[in-house]
Each structure stands twice: as C-alpha cells, then as structure tokens.
Write a structure and sequence with these properties.
mainly alpha; 5 helices; elongated
C-alpha cells in the first residue's frame, strides 16, 4: 500500500519530467531505496556493503560482552554462585555441625572463625548465600511469569512502550 507522501512524490516527479533519480545508470547518483521483500534479500544487501546481518540476541550478547562493569558483575555473581553451591561438597564443616572450637578467630581450619556455640562461620555464610541466591532466582522467575501472564491477558494495554 502506498501512503500519501510517496504518491505525492511520484506525482511531483511526473510533473517535473524525467528525473535523475529515475535513471539508475547516471554515474554517482544513488537510486531510491526499495524495501527488500524477503529477509535473505536484506542479508544479501547488507553483505554487499560490508555489514554482516546479526540477530537481536546476538547483538544484545555482543553489547553485554563489551560492557566492562556488566562483565565484572557477571564474574562476581559466578564466583559467589560457585562458592555457595560447591562449599557444602568440599568444605569439611557443615553449617549445622558443632565443633569443639568455641569462639575461635579465623584460621586455616575455620576460614571465618567460629561462633560461641562452635558453628563454623564460613559454612553458615555460604549456606546463607545459597539460600539468598535461590530466593533471588525464584523471585525473578515468578516476576517474569506474572508479568508475562499480565501482558498476555491485557494484550499489552498500559505498557510503557510507544
């Protein structure tokens, strides 16, 4: 469907006679842009000009990987997640285990020390980290599901997008 501006433009060209834009063989004159009908035509057109067509997820990932603060945050999150998940398997003390070392300062056997009852503070900290990560991920999943259901039910009415 041709909108009004394109019809008016064509009408103006007809009144003015043959235009340079109507002669694609004219040297140094760009031809009017025509919208490609298929995505493969767009890909071919982009590769002709030295660009490689990328999907949106690939562009988002590339932008994320170039952002230094985002990468540093991702590394910290991965380290904390690995520590929280792997500590119970490899650390010799459990968060519930009572040791004979009461109120000990940090040492090679108890990395964060012990409390007044003999609980290993590092094991308790890693248990708390694991629970915090689990709650955070569950809240993120729950919020995503609820918002998606709300958006689907309302058809996007009231969204912030124009």
């Amino acid at each position: 469907m041709v909108d009004w501006d394109e019809r008016q433009l064509e009408h103006d060209f007809d009144k003015a006679g043959p235009s340079v834009l109507e002669r694609p063989d004219a040297p140094g004159v760009p031809t009017p842009y025509s919208e490609p009908e298929r995505p493969d035509e767009l890909n071919q057109e982009l590769t002709e000009f030295g660009f490689k067509a990328r999907s949106q997820p690939r562009m988002v990932l590339g932008r994320f990987l170039r952002h230094k603060l985002a990468m540093a945050s991702l590394i910290v999150l991965v380290i904390f997640t690995l520590l929280a998940v792997l500590t119970p398997r490899f650390y010799p003390y459990s968060y519930t285990e009572l040791t004979e070392d009461l109120s000990q300062p940090p040492s090679t056997s108890h990395w964060f020390g012990t409390d007044a009852l003999g609980h290993d503070t590092f094991a308790q900290t890693m248990r708390g980290s694991l629970k915090s990560l689990q709650v955070g991920f569950l809240v993120a999943i729950f919020a995503t599901v609820c918002w998606s259901a709300r958006s689907r039910a309302t058809g996007g009415v009231g969204s912030t997008r124009p």
